[in-house]
Amino acid sequence: MTYFIDRRPNAKHKSAVNRQRFLERYRKHIKRSVEEAVNRRSITDMERGENVSIPAKDISEPVFQHGPGGARNIVSPGNKEFVAGDKIRRPSGQGGGGGAGEGGPSNQGEGVDEFAFTLSREEFLEFVFDGLELPHLQRKPLKSLEEVKMVRAGLSRDGVPSRISITRSMREAYARRIAMRAPIKRALREAIDALEAEERKDTVLRNPTRIAELKAEIERLEKRIAGVPFIDTYDLRYHQLSAQPQPSNQAVMFCVMDVSGSMTQNHKDIAKRFFLLLYLFLEKHYEKVELVFVRHHTAAREVSEEEFFYSRETGGTIVSSALNLVNKIIEKRYPVGQWNLYVAQASDGDNWDDDSNICRDLLVKQLMPQLQYYAYVEITPHDHQSLWHEYESVVKEFPERFAMRQIVEAGDIYPVFRELFKRRLSQS
Amino acid sequence: MSATRKRKPIATGSDWNFSVLERFDAELARLADEYRLDTYPNQIEVITTEQMMDAYASVGMPVGYHHWSFGKQFLAVEQAYKRGQMGLAYELVINSDPCIAYLMEENTLMMQVLVMAHACYGHNSFFKGNYLFRTWTDASSIVDYLVFARKYIAKCEERHGVQAVEQLLDACHALQNYGVDRYKRPSPISAEEEAKRQEERESYLQTQVNMLWRTIPEAPISDSPLSTGGLHADDDPLGLHSGGHYPPEPQENLLYFIEKNAPLLAPWQREIVRIVRKLAQYFYPQRQTQVMNEGWACFWHYTLMNRLYDDGNVDEGLMLEFLQSHAAVINQPAFDNPHFSGINPYALGFAIFMDIKRICDAPTDEDREWFPDIAGTPWRETLEFAMRNFKDESFIQQFLSPKVMRDHKLFLVVDDDQVETLEVAAIHNEQGYRQVREALATQYALSVREPNIQVVEAAIRGDRSLTLHHVQDSRRPLGRSVYPVIRHLQQLWGFPVHLVSLEEGRVTRRFHWPVEDESPAS
Predict the structure, then answer these.
(1) Where does the chain cross the membrane (chain A) (predicted)?
(2) How does the average pLDDT of chain A come out, rounded?
């Protein structure tokens, strides 16, 4: 007898839990590999998984085994020229014959001493951003035409038939039946007892009228019991739904970059990586992340991504122009109540001397109160200029939401990024 | 051939569908019946590649408890498959009733038919017939037991934390090859009973352990009604209150010993030890019948496929594809071939079974001399007898014929680390047959493949340390993994563990955990 079953529609990833357990257990190893990968790869290429190798000895599951040594008899196939009594020189490099299952080198690129496997993109990003947290991750509530989610909100006595809660209705009916029958039953029992007592009496002493009365009473009571309805509209209960506004799950990220003559392509590449990291990070936390690119020299302009990173301009630098533009865009398109706002700014630190304190005022008075977080990276090996110093005073005012770091070369990006978004433990 | 008999193949080409598979199965079932193959009902499940990798990772258990090692297994399989190092799943079949076999959706029609013949009729009848499987496993309850195990372990994880359970499982897995009584018939596992008895066992086990570790002797209570199973049924099972030494006999079943005697384990921990032990027991027959099991399955797929062809149910194209695949499966590279990785159990087993058939049908003088009992007997009965009553070790000892040794050009090398060179002790000739056969049979003996380790003493009156003996076989020492393993053992036992390697009664090496000072005090 044979049954055929098509299991293909069943869920795959039956091993997903085991896979997670494995990743969890070797977190440290994997994290090291991931960090190396982040520093090695270009950040544009964060969108794929990663091959990870762990030394096989670290993950072996030990069992008692024979070690090399002693005397062993080995039967092998494929004898060509040996006859009994032949002596063969021991193959070199296999001290004492090699224990069972010790394995030789592999010719497939990776040695068998490494346990290699592939992380999926999600797993990879999970490790990249492990231990990081979005500062002030307040989900902004409401949006006037907010999508609401219907959630169950207990039970009610009225509703549409399709939402009847059968269990609860039946339970109510049961309770009601018990409650309604109990006094009748008690009376019935009393009547029956009385009747029996009457009938036990000597024939002479019996009171026929009383017996007839009692019998009538019993009949009446039994009818009443039978008359208690099995279910009543009074018993019905309905699941109730209530509309719950969903917190806004969208964020917008402003990328602000200085494109004046002093910013070289190298600077921009570094900035780009930083922006990308931030983008991926936000994407993990919000369902929807919009990007706004603002570049500036002496004047700011909103541009496409392509233009943002690759077109060159020259000229001086006025940072406040960009901040003003960001402010305008927020006012026009991204009402604070509906969007989580993030700004990431990259620059080489140049600014017109007079402009830096304008920037500070703009930030402190207008921008910062609306923003979730402002990250500023300065890409320069040189000493800081006025902008940095002004920003330092912003940090003092908004220590939790304004962060700035210096990046000297590409290798710094990831550490700086981690530093900026490090999970802050028990901070008020 | 009877002058170009008209073929009416059930299907041609490489595509398949369920109705075609059903017709092939009906045909195979008819043939199997004709050959009197006794099988469990088949449950054939069609699955995707992903699902096959899942199944692989859980060593073919249709449901398994969660553990990182299965995740590791999965990643390894996935990687190997993606890199093309490994073709997935020639077959995967589970010793259960009904017998579950997996077919992968991207297999060709030929593959599906081949796997059905191989797994659903070959392996299936082996599971049902072979004495080891009959003794050690209960096919009808394994799936239920797995479900029980999974639920129980999940419950423990909830209550005691994933990490605690994981560490315990790690330790148990390290010892799972030592979870079988080799000489005692075990009681078959049954899930329902397990679940029912589990709670009462919890309390009972604890009292029994308490008994063992009790320091104040008490008057023995006569015959406890609970003390039915188990090695030591008395209330003072060990005679420890009357002095002496525990256990009275060395114990080879380390997990059983731990489950019953480890002083500090909580009841749920004992239950998990038991689960690992029971599952090890379930896989125990498979570890001892690789050559036979695969040989038997190959013999039958070969026989059945040829019958399908002879009866005109498959066309030449399918047959050629089959022969190519079959040849790959039973290929045995020579020892000096870069692809050599030991003896191929499919090849050896297939060769032996085919040869038994040959000896029955057309014995030579040599066969009459070597196999007077079976030469010229009806082959089907002889084959059945061979399948039912042996394991690899005894099967090879009994049935490996000079012809198979010659065909495979088997030779015996002695590798003794006290001698400078390897020596060819025997080859496939008149003088060598017996020695080669003997050596090959021994090579498949579990007692030789795995170090012989037994518990000899639990110092219940002293520091509660546990002492084990490793009896060396031809001076072969323990591998490097010994320390991690005794560390696991120590975690289960809770007190120091000593392992002593012995060669002919002489101590060659001592291992301790926790590691003792190795000051040259001795």
Answers:
(1) none
(2) 80
Smallest CA–CA distance, residue B244 to chain A, in Å, is 29
Q: What is the pLDDT of residue B407?
A: 94
pLDDT band at A107 (very low <50, low <70, confident <90, very high): very low
Q: Which residues lie below 8 Å from residue B431, measured CB to CB, with a gap of 6+?
A: A84
B202 at interface of A, judged by CB pairs closer than 8 A: no
Using the Cα atoms of residue B183, residue B189, residue B193 and residue B195 in order, give the sign of their dihedral.
positive
Do the domain assignments include residue A395? yes
Residues of chain B in contact with residue A118, where contact means CB-CB under 8 angstroms, are 75, 78-79, 82
Q: Which two tokens stand for residue A407?
A: 């990046």
A9 touching B (Cβ < 8 Å): no
Q: Which of B63, B98, B130 is the last residue of a domain?
A: B130
In a domain, A227, yes or no: yes
**Residue B48 exposed, middle or buried by CB count within 10 Å (0-12, 13-18, 19+):** middle
Testing the interface with B: which of A26, A64, A65, A107 to mutate, by most B Cβ within 10 A? A64
- The pTM of the full predicted model, rounded to 2 decimals, is 0.71
Q: What is the torsion angle, in degrees rounded to the nearest 10, for the CA atoms of residue B55, residue B57, residue B63 and residue B68?
A: -160
Q: Which chain B residues are Cβ-neighbours of A99 within 8 angstroms?
A: 479
Both A236 and A272 in a single domain? Answer: no
- Three-class SS state of B510: strand
Which amino acid, A322? A
At residue A143, the pLDDT reads: 44
Q: What are phi and psi of A240, to 5 degrees?
A: -110, 140
State which of A42-46, B36-40, B180-184 shows the largest mean pLDDT.
Answer: B36-40
Rounded Cα distance, B223 and B226, in Å? 8
Q: What angle do CA B457, B462, B466 make, to 5 degrees?
A: 30
Confidence check: pLDDT of A100 > 60 = no
Domain check: are B419 and B506 in the same one?
A: no
User: Residue A47's pLDDT is what?
Assistant: 64
Q: Which CATH number does the domain housing residue A300 bear? A: 3.40.50.410
When comparing pLDDT for A207 and B324, which is higher? B324
Nearest CA in chain B to A8: B47
CB within 8 Å: B79 and A8: no
Q: Which of A13, A61, A77 sits opposite B69 (nearest CB)?
A: A61
First to last CA, chain A: 68
Has residue A84 been placed in a domain?
A: no
Q: Do B478 and A20 make contact, defined as CB atoms within 8 angstroms?
A: no
- The residue written with tokens 């062993």 in the block is A72
Give per-residue pLDDT as tens, B366-417.
999 999 999 999 999 999 999 999 999 999 999 999 999 999 999 999 998 8
**Would the CB atoms of A77 and B416 count as touching at under 8 Å?**
no
Q: Which of A127-141, A216-230, B149-163, B272-286 has the lowest mean pLDDT?
A: A127-141
Collect all residues with Cβ–Cβ distance below 8 Å to A212 and sequence separation of at least 6: none
How far is residue B466's CA from residue B488's CA, in Å, rounded to a whole number?
13
What's the pLDDT at A24?
A: 86
Q: How many domains does chain B have?
A: 3
pLDDT > 70 in chain A, percent: 86
Computed over its alpha carbons, how large is the radius of gyration of chain B? Answer: 26
**Between residues 89 and 108 of chain A, which touch chain B (CB distance below 8 Å)?**
89-90, 96-97, 99-100, 108
CB A17 within 8 A of CB B57: no
Residue span of the structural domain in which B384 resides: 363-447
End position of a domain, from candidates B130, B151, B170: B130
User: Chain A contact for B5, CB < 8 A?
Assistant: no
Residue A251: exposed, middle, or buried by beta-carbon count in 10 A (0-12, 13-18, 19+)? buried
Residue B235: per-residue pLDDT: 53
List chain A residues with CB under 8 Å of B50.
Answer: 12-13
Residue A315 in any domain: the answer is: yes
State mean pLDDT over A138-156.
63
